[in-house]
Every structure is written in structure tokens, then in C-alpha cells.
Amino acid sequence: MTTGVGVVAALLVAASSVPAFAVDSPGGVSAPLTANGADVVPGTVTESPSASPQEEAAAGADSETPLEEDLPIPGQADGPDLPTEPKTPMADYCGHGKYFVHITKNKKNHITKNKKNTMSVKYATYVKNKKSYPIDFKFTSKKSGTTKIGASVTISSEFKVMWLGKIEVEVNGNVEKSWTSELGIEAGGKVKAKSTVYGDYGIMKENVAGYSAYRYSNCQIGQKKNMTVWAP
């Protein structure tokens, strides 16, 4: 297993690249998620696969499919719109000027919890069943990778801390530290006859859009810097 701060991993079991996702806090690993249309026998997918009494489970092989940095997660949608601009006190003086960040849905100043979450794929696997009946399969993650907080424009460490607070991601120590996907996580089930099942392991990413700006002591807001920000 890899070491580091905030270990997160995710897995997919599907006939196409649609992933399962990790739980929302670093260190958590989600149960495998089966995408619609996956060539697996319904109800067989598990995070604790065991060998069939008749034969050993077919092991997954390394896939040559390109890894995706932003693989869609099924069922994800943008969060609801909330109140618009941060409320300005009914006064001519707002205290010392300061920078702030404001999460928006589509650069129209409507706050949203987040945009659609995605998965940063770190390892892809598959198993092909050439037989005329279902067989057991088992996927095991063999490669790890890291994902860091990022933005569509350059932001300082101070702003990363501010953004992480808005994104509601748990942070341990320095925000520059990355999350690392784990090795050896397993999932399995039964693959249908004459079918292929694909799996992806990776790290869930929270995605938000918003801006940073400076509010002056006279309560006026300076020029906004719009950006998209993501964090594992």
C-alpha cells in the first residue's frame, strides 16, 4: 500500500468508462459501483471477491485504455443555486480590506455547492470471458497515482487554503500535499458469457467554479478573477 497523507481510491466495474467514487474524506475507499450496461451478472459485484469452488477467479489484466483525468461519475449533477453575491453590510465601512473567494456555478455569480464531481483514473483493468457461461472475475489495483488541488489560473497557497475551505475538503497540514490512490484494493463478481468487463481505479475530484476578489474598506468589490478549482 502506498503511504502519504490523505489516501483515497476509487473503482469502477463497467462495460464502459464510468467509475465508482471514493468517499468524501481522505483515507476513505468507496465500495465498487456498477455502471449501467456493465456486462456483469446483477448482484454479484463485491469488494471482497473470493475464488469460485469450481475454478480460480479470472484476474484482470492491464488495460491499454488511456487514463482519464476527469472521468464522469454516474449520477453526478451540479449543485443547486444559492443566494448571489456575498451580502454587504448596510454601512459605508466594511472594516479592513481583504481578499475572499466566491463559488459560482457558471460565472453568473450564483453560488453552488459544487459542479459535477469526476474521477482521476490511476489504473485501468479488464477481463474477457470467452466461455459460454458466466465466470468469476477479480480486479486488483496494481498502480497508484496522486492528484493535487488545482485551478484554471495560478493561485497562491493562501488562496488554495481559502478554496479548500469553500470546497469543504478535509486538509491535513500543507495544502500542497497530494492524495494518493491505494494499491491492492480488490473488487469482483461474475462476468457474463462472451463478454468483457472493464474497471478503473482512481481518486474522486471535487470541482467548483467561482472567483476571487478584493473587498475594500468602503465595501466595494474589486475586479474578479474567475476560475475553476478542483481538489481530491
What would you say this structure looks like, in words?
Helix content is 5%, strand content 34%. The chain has one helix at 157-167, and strands at residues 10-13, 33-34, 58-59, 61-62, 71-72, 98-104, 115-129, 135-140, 146-147, 150-151, 179-180, 186-191, 195-215, 225-231. The protein is mainly beta and 232 residues long. Strands 1, 2, 4, 5, 6, 7, 10, 13 and 14 form a nine-stranded mixed beta sheet that branches. The protein contains one helix and 14 strands, in the order ββββββββββαββββ.
Overall geometric form: elongated
Mean pLDDT: 76
The chain-level structural class is mainly beta
Number of helices: 1
Percent strand equals 25-35%
Helical residues, percent: under 10%
Report the end-to-end length measured between terminal Cα atoms.
18 Å
How many E-type strands?
A: 14
- Largest sheet geometry: 9 strands, mixed
Fill in the keyword field for this structure.
232 residues; mainly beta; nine-stranded mixed sheet; three-stranded mixed sheet; 14 strands; 5% helix; 34% strand; disordered N terminus
Summarize the structure.
This protein has 232 residues and is mainly beta.
Strands, helices and their partners?
Elements: E1 10-13, E2 33-34, E3 58-59, E4 61-62, E5 71-72, E6 98-104, E7 115-129, E8 135-140, E9 146-147, E10 150-151, H1 157-167, E11 179-180, E12 186-191, E13 195-215, E14 225-231
